[in-house]
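Bug report (template v2)

What were you trying to do?
Predict the complex of my protein with norvaline.

What happened?
Run completed; filing so the output is reviewed.

Input:
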Amino acid sequence: MSLVTQKRDFLSISDFSTDELTRLLNRAHRLKVGKEDSQLIGKSLAMIFRKSSTRTRISFEVGMTQLGGHALFLSDHDSQIGRGEPIHDTAKVLSRYVDGIMIRTFGHEEVEELSRHASIPVINGLTDLLHPCQVVADLQTVAEEFGPDYSERTVAWIGDGNNMANSWLNAAYRLGFSVRLACPEGYDPDPLIFERAKQMADVLLTRDPCEAVQGADVVTTDVWASMGQEEEARERMAAFTGFSVDDTLMQQAFPSAIFLHCLPAHRGEEVSSSVIDGPQSRIFNEAENRIHTQKAILLELLG
Ligand code: CP
Ligand code: NVA
């Protein structure tokens, strides 16, 4: 009988079953309210950042410290990754030193390659395709507002069909809530992720932000040009005209609706100051929840 246990990764929300995702969110809640004190004493996490970060870096690094472990920050500028060391060699070398790897990069296939060659858990800290850790924190924020029954909720996504939109669709696929996306033509979410979500959830794609927010409990958006798309910023600004979340749009959602944004935000572009700094905004609870959900993910995978 083999005693080898399969390592677990978190590359996508859909890597976790509905039960596992629910357990993860319950664990994040217990960590937040001080009802769980599991630790990762002596464990180390390598954090590869090929794109910038504030929240993801800090929440993983402080999260590991709070759990009694240690995190190492590795960037393109000061590791051999930036000089072209193959990802499969990096995966094998890191597997000899640390207990888990978190990576933020461009192509999702790079994270999948890292995972294939690493013998330790790999966590996706954002790719061009997905941002699963952020959406787990967003789900915790939704449960704090409306309770744990996600199937009752409707989430309106306004703007770019980007890594955040795709991860919301994966969350709907697992938890069965409604997602209504308003994206300009040419900026739709990933078609395979969209079709899969439709099998399990009420999912709508429209060009009309007003249609998307009707009956929404959560209105959420993100920057119009993500990291790596800076050169398209001007063209995108024109394409996304009319897709700003402002007071007029918020008024068409339920009066109890909350506003979420993964941050960083561009006030006056995808969201008005009055909305992001207004009474319906939960952006700082959402940012705080990154640390609780990161710790829950770390404990599930490395514990
Ligand atoms: N929301 C988010 O992932 O923020 P950072 O880019 O600062 O990590
Ligand atoms: N969509 C954004 C999210 C940043 C946290 C980006 O990829 O830059």
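What did the reviewer find?
The mean pLDDT is 97. The beta strands are 44-49, 70-75, 100-104, 122-124, 154-158, 178-182, 203-206, 218-221, 258-261.
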